[in-house]
User: What shape does this take?
Amino acid sequence: MRRVAPVLEVLVPLALLGVWALWSANSDTFYYPPLTDILSTFNETWVFERVGSDVVPSLLRLTAGYLLAVAIAVLVGIPLGLNATARRAAAPIVEFLRAIPPPALLPLAIVVVGVGNSMKVLIIAFVCLWPVLLNTIDGIRGIDPTLNDTARVYGVSRFATLPAAAPQIFAGMRTSLSLAVIMMVISEMVASTNGIGFFVLQSQRSFAIPEMWSGILLLGILGYALNLLFTVVERRVLAWHRGAHA
Amino acid sequence: MKTWAPPTVAVLCVLALWELVVGIGLLNEDHVPPMTDTVAELANLLGDPDFWAAVGNTMQGWALGLGIAAVLAIPLGIVIGSSATAYRSVRFVVEFLRPIPSVALVPLAVLIYGVGLESKVFLAAFASFWPLFVQSLYGVHDVDPVATDTARSFGLGRLERLWRIKLPSAVPYIATGLRISSAVALILAVTAELVIGSAGLGRSINVARQSGAIELMYALIITTGLIGYLLNTLTSQAERRVLHWHPSQRQVAA
Assistant: This one.
């Protein structure tokens, strides 16, 4: 059993891919082209033909919006986490803003800042803000009281204990990362002239179905790769934490 | 100080600030309408049958999407989560499929289901499937081993262990999954209306923007926020009621 499981972990995804390839091999349905067609289109389109024109702009917007959100969320979250009155006062505003379905803000962002890059960066940042903010607040609140007391006894400033909130802040950042990809795609679908989201929607509208599928595939790979990258960074940054809890 | 005082004061302050900033011309009135105008527009909307029809359309997409996701995801998650082999073999597939942004499927949904309700429900169901599925999977999988061992040594069979030990300890996970999925389903319903143009609040917002009805656009956006807030409050309340026996809820009551 124990030896079979890791093999299965690799085999099942491969088998699923195989089933897809076989099932679609002789497909003449317009909407579901053979997997081999999708892969060869993928190769023609993304390696590395449209990387500069679509992938790079998309990734730049994603990174800018995401980092902006994390910076603001941590800066605002720390005082809110430390002060109960401020937290209570901010709660309804945070809860309301967080509850707005983010795409609903797109028309607003277009009216206020236009259709350029800043609109996309702002909308990504706005959406990624909330998970990080809430986790920062909870993380700061949840710092072990013993830690705070110890800091006080040794005459160390309270800010020295703040890194203890880092694991929870990272949990929020992880949630935000997939939101950032989603908002990148939506904002490019609604108003853009380049980017992966723009490409996918454009392919569908011009009935370039294998191109559309290749874009969807790329977005899946991108989401997975970003998640993986995040895990690596998290493991490195939080190495002290895992060590302390081992 | 009463507990409700700081939040009320803060909300009033933000509203006043909004009015002030627009009033003294710090923000362009063509971009941001005065708060009082927006609130008046919102009050106006409450008597408008078209508005309620749009709310109804959005809620229909939300309910159907979430319902379909729940019916598929919870049993599937429980079945796969209770078997160690099945759990390990799907783990990779799930990790790969989960980060695919559901909006990437918007074009596909349009091709297959057109621009009506089906597309909206498909997108909402697909997106809200994952949080629920993963939560049920982890919930069943993360059962306290001492509890299952105890049950086994008392001679409880496989089914009875599932019913008495695994399901109850998975319920808090599933409840959290439902709360996340409910928000996700609303987001996708509005996205579908906005991008594809299915009837509902999202399309109304877009139409308001294109026709330059700024107050209306802001009022509609606030409406979607209020709906989201309401759904979130309702699901947390329900969660608290259903899970009153669980340790995670005890602190809240105190």
